[in-house]
């Protein structure tokens, strides 16, 4: 079995919730895309990261069914684990920094996969949503406190790969921040926290807490 670490990304202030991420630190043990895809499917995390160069921050990201040029929460988790100033993804170079309890990345909205955004009138409506049928990748959201930039959200990948709801989705938060043009404090899923802030020249920062769940050897 290939060694990998399990991180929890976008944790709540108490360290709970967050989205599990698999990270294969020695990506060289599985150089072929087909083998990486097979392991990502077997691990069944929302995303799995393969580190091809830990010093330069070169990473490769997979869902259980597809390779992604960029994804938000895997980059936040990898940036925390590798402690590097930038990550190199197929989409482009992602800026990275650690600030106290938060790991931050800086990326561009055009790197994120498309999402269908559905705004609701209240956080209670978001809480009551049922998982939709497979199809579109749906990001359902509502203002909890619009002046303060606080949002309640849930993400439904709709891929039919066994992951009915994504607990914390950095790419969707990136797109919503670019759309709304303001800093956001998002509570997603069961209680994960995602922070965002627009930056000059089309960049957006995404931040959250990361913790190491364990290592599988």
TrEMBL record:
<dbReference type="GO" id="GO:0003824">
    <property type="term" value="F:catalytic activity"/>
</dbReference>
<dbReference type="Pfam" id="PF02567">
    <property type="entry name" value="PhzC-PhzF"/>
</dbReference>
<dbReference type="InterPro" id="IPR003719">
    <property type="entry name" value="Phenazine_PhzF-like"/>
</dbReference>
<protein>
    <submittedName>
        <fullName>Phenazine biosynthesis protein PhzC/PhzF</fullName>
    </submittedName>
</protein>
């Amino acid at each position: 079995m290939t060694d990998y670490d399990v991180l929890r990304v976008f944790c709540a202030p108490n360290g709970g919730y967050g989205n599990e991420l698999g990270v294969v630190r020695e990506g060289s043990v599985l150089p072929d895309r087909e083998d990486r895809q097979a392991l990502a499917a077997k691990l069944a995390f929302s995303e799995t990261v393969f580190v091809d160069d830990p010093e330069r921050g070169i990473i490769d990201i997979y869902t259980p069914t597809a390779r992604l040029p960029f994804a938000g929460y895997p980059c936040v988790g990898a940036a925390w684990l590798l402690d590097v100033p930038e990550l190199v993804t197929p989409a482009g170079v992602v800026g990275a920094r650690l600030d106290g309890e938060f790991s931050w990345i800086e990326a561009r909205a055009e790197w994120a996969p498309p999402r269908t955004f559905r705004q609701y009138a209240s956080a209670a409506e978001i809480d009551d949503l049922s998982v939709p049928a497979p199809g579109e990748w749906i990001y359902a959201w509502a203002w909890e406190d619009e002046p303060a930039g606080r949002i309640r959200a849930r993400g439904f990948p709709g891929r039919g790969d066994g992951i009915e709801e994504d607990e914390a989705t950095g790419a969707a938060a990136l797109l919503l921040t670019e759309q709304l043009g303001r800093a956001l404090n998002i509570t997603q899923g069961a209680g994960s926290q995602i922070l965002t802030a627009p930056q000059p020249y089309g960049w957006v920062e995404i931040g959250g807490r990361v913790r190491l769940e364990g290592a599988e050897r």
